[in-house]
User: What shape does this take?
Amino acid sequence: MFGYKGRNGRGDLVEGTLEGDDTSVIADQLMNTGITPLEIKPFRGVTGGTTGKTDWFKRFFTEKPVTSMDVQLFSRQMYTLLKAGVPIMRALAGLQESTQNPTFSTLLQDLRESLDSGRELSAALRRHPKVFSPFYVSMVQVGEMTGMLDETFIRLYDYLEFERDMRERIKTAMRYPSFVVLAMGIAIVIINLFVIPAFAKVYAGFNAELPTITKLLLGFSAFMVNYWLLMVAIVIGVVLGFRFYTNTVNGRYKWDKYKFKLPIVGSIIFKATLSRFARSMALSFKSGMPIMQGMNVVGMVVDNEFMRSRIEQMRDGIERGESILRTAVTAGVFNPVVLQMIAVGEETGDMDGLMQEVAEMYEREVKYEVATLSSKIEPILIVSLGILVLILALGVFLPMWDLGKAAMHK
Assistant: This one.
């Protein structure tokens, strides 16, 4: 609910409340009734508090969020319907009736109302930034301008399919290593909090000099037992501090740059970022998007501040009149093969095709590296687990071994 103040056609002040998704919807409703809005703000009535809490509670437990799969299916279905010549309003109505997600159905209803009030589809999509990314909205806008809206939707579908496939592959590859690392962490905590303290009582009755490794284990275990709350607080503080630092402009830039240098996964992140950049560029070129606008929206897609700064550097160079190849060389993030493809594409005027080739090349490399990711991590985990077991075994059983030898000599 929103409270509003406005003036009617005679200039009289009018006040009241209206229900809508946001202030722009309320403004449209008022303008349609001949009222010029002066002020619109959320309405907090006397009896609205409980209802608001109830609605919030109901939405929290009953509403399903709009997922990337919903957007992907929406893109595929819109392509099919528009390709078949179905009017866009009728297409949205059909999708609203067939969708199984009530939240997405409400979103489609809002799109229909926005189109009915005279907005373009891209402007209607822009009202839902949490569902439709700036790149998605920009591509739809270009599709509207060029009359290739159906082709734009199928290209967006392919793009979202690639993104989803990469996420699923990385999750699958990291599932086993994550489980092993979690199990090792739990085992270390249990051993230090419960197992080693029990052995410490036994060792205390030996009245003998303990090996150095055993002293270290006992000291670390005693520290965990006495200061486990402090250790938990330190871990939480480090996590929160890291998140705060990476939320700053400088921190996010440095972390995104360091990601590319991480062992094992750094090359995967780097190649996946370049693949996303190349595919986005190919899609923007193929759709007829102006190169400056294309560089702007591609910078939003890469989701890496370091790479985004390089794209902005390329955009500034192109704006000064430099060639794409020259700006790509100056950016310093492309290998010679990619630079050669850019040079050929710029010379022949087939940048979309050549950038598509670059994207597919990096996609093949990413798929191969993701497929072999587990085989790279497993030896490291096995060695780490072996070292952990060796340290625990030596630390726990060496004193008993020494005691046994002393008893045999007696």
About this structure: Residues 166 and 367 are 8 Å apart (CA to CA).
